Amino acid sequence: MSTTNELSTLEKLQAAYENNKKRINTITTVVLLAVVGFVVYTNLILKPKENKAATALSYAQQFFAMDSLNLALNGDNTHPGFVKIIKKFSGTKSANLAHYYAGVCYLRTGEFKKAISELEAFNGKGTAFASMAKGCLGDAYMETNNTQKAIDCYMDASANKADEVITPMYLLRAAMANEMAKNNEEAKRKRLYIEIRDQYATSPQARDVEKNLARLGELGN
Questions:
Q1: Mind listing the pLDDT tens digit for each residue in 124-183?
Q2: What is the 3 state secondary structure string of the chain?
Q3: What CATH number has the domain bearing residue 159?
Q4: Distance CA 123, CA 76 (A)
Q5: Cα separations (Å) of 193 from 177, 179, 185, 202, 205?
Q6: C-beta separation of 171 from 205 below 8 A
Q7: Is residue 13 part of a domain?
Q8: Who has greater pLDDT, 19 or 168?
């Protein structure tokens, strides 16, 4: 009986395949071509593009390290700068990093709207620059008198509590921005100065925290 049932099932499957053979084969071919296309694109196009982008970025980073910001942004006769890398190598990891570097360059040269545009375009996830990018974005917003956005960015930048260098720096900027925005009670509530004093006592930002707390208390009376 079981053998008969098995044969019946196989016959049904065979019949179903025969009835839909053209459709099944078409779908199989499409899937196979998609897989092959992805492999070809990754190995023959994307990887070489990533390698070229990384090489170009390394030269722009050297200009950046020398504080030659114009060359870092625009390049020289031989090597492209961050602006061209973003356009020429769009979609690569290096182009993404170029957004960050370009944003910092514009911040340093006083072109704050361009800095905001580049830093917002940067995807910091999985990079070592996520916190710094948020902090720099906060600085750019402060320069354009958008204090609340600056505070939000500073709070994001200080979210990694294990970072004893960047976190207290941006906690302090968030606290000071709160005061500038007349959000004295909010600054107290968030205990930003106290967090710096208690959690980052050895940081440079902790040196004058007591003075800031006293002044904030006076302002709050």
A1: 998 889 999 999 999 999 999 999 999 999 999 999 989 999 999 999 999 989 888 876
A2: CHHHHHHHHHHHHHHHHHHCHHHHHHHHHHHHHHHHHHHHHHHHHHHHHHHHHHHHHHHHHHHHHCCCHHHHHHCCCCCCCHHHHHHHCCCCHHHHHHHHHHHHHHHHCCCHHHHHHHHHHCCCCCCCCHHHHHHHHHHHHHHCCCHHHHHHHHHHHCCCCCCCCHHHHHHHHHHHHHHHCCCHHHHHHHCHHHHHHHHCCCCHHHCCHHHHHHHHHHHHC
A3: 1.25.40.10
A4: 27
A5: 12, 11, 12, 14, 9
A6: yes
A7: no
A8: 168
Instruction: Count how many Cα atoms sit within 13 Å of the Cα of residue 94 in the half-sphere of its side chain.
Output: 25
Q: Name the residue among 169, 94, 179, 106 with its Cα closest to residue 143.
A: 106
**Whose structure tokens read 């008969």?**
4
Q: Which pLDDT band, with edges at 50, 70 and 90, does 5 fall under?
A: low
Please work out, in degrees rounded to the nearest 5, the angle formed at the alpha carbon of residue 113 by the alpha carbons of 110 and 115: 70
Assigned domain for 2 exists: no
- The domain in which residue 207 lies consists of 124-221
In a domain, 3, yes or no: no
pLDDT at 184 over 80: no
- How many domains is the chain built from? 1
Which of 147, 213, 156 is closest to 177 using CA atoms?
147
- Predicted model pTM: 0.76
> Does any domain span residue 100?
no
